[in-house]
Design brief:
Chain lengths: 115, 150
């Protein structure tokens, strides 16, 4: 069994869970979709084209911000939100590590039952 | 990116043999690398000390969920629960399922681990509640979208 890694603190796993949870909403996914184009956007821009209020969009952006998926930048009098791909990449790497461990474990099971 | 792990492996051994390797606590311990202390019982906790070199400090702890002979074995646990100083008992566990299927050459074993997207309810304000419908598909869409842009 090799279920480990150098960066396996509970805080990190909690962060993974927060990223997963943040992604589990259609509005937030469409916000990410919009922001992942690379251009930081204002709340006004992100609210335009949706049927949601500015407050609702702001709330979703805060959830994404807490998960580290977006961050806000001050631009004059307004905030702009920018996409940060890192948390989603880390999530993928985490799942890849768990996946690789299963490969090892199941390789041992295979030798065990076929041996 | 997906919120589940799925592995399929063909084993050249009949389902009865594979079932024993998975459901008998001593056999399970032999290939998994853990010194399990008592037989598996559905609904009950099973634990032991990891024997795999380098991880002997790790306590292995699962709750056996289902034991359907030659068909399904499942347990919940905390993936990556390797730091002895951390109490993982309040974390929402993931579900691991072993499904056996008889094939011409032996057994097709499918292992899935799910539940990575859950966090304990008390840490989840309303805004965090999962929208379960089409989650996996949504993730695929997003991943494709993000990949296309990079």
């Amino acid at each position: 069994m090799s279920r480990t890694g150098s960066d396996t603190s509970a805080a990190r796993r909690r962060q993974h869970a927060a990223v997963f949870a943040a992604l589990g909403d259609e509005t937030r996914l469409s916000l990410i979709s919009e922001l992942s184009a690379g251009e930081p956007r204002s709340i006004a821009h992100l609210t335009g084209g949706t049927r949601l209020t500015r407050q609702a969009i702001t709330k979703h952006l805060r959830v994404l911000e807490q998960a580290g998926i977006v961050h806000s930048e001050r631009s004059g009098r307004e905030s702009r939100f920018a996409f940060d791909p890192k948390p989603m990449q880390e999530l993928r790497e985490y799942l890849e590590r768990v996946s690789a461990q299963w490969d090892q474990v199941l390789g041992r099971l295979k030798s065990f039952v076929e041996g | 990116m997906n919120n589940r792990i799925e592995k399929r492996i063909e084993l050249k051994a009949p389902p009865a043999r594979v079932w024993r390797a998975i459901s008998d606590y001593r056999e399970f311990g032999a290939w998994f690398g853990v010194n399990i202390e008592a037989p598996f019982v559905a609904g009950q906790e099973a634990q032991g000390q990891i024997t795999y070199p380098g991880y002997e400090h790790v306590r292995w702890r699962v709750v056996i969920q289902k034991m359907e002979p030659e068909r399904l074995f499942s347990f919940t646990w905390h993936p990556y629960a390797v730091d002895p100083k951390v109490d993982y008992s309040h974390e929402t566990p993931t579900l691991v399922e072993f499904r056996l299927e008889k094939i011409a050459t032996g057994t097709l074993l499918t292992v899935t681990e799910t539940g990575f997207d859950r966090i304990p309810a008390e840490r989840r304000p309303d805004a965090f509640r999962m929208n379960d419908g089409g989650w996996a598909q949504q993730m695929k869409n997003i991943e494709r979208h993000v990949a296309d842009r990079q």
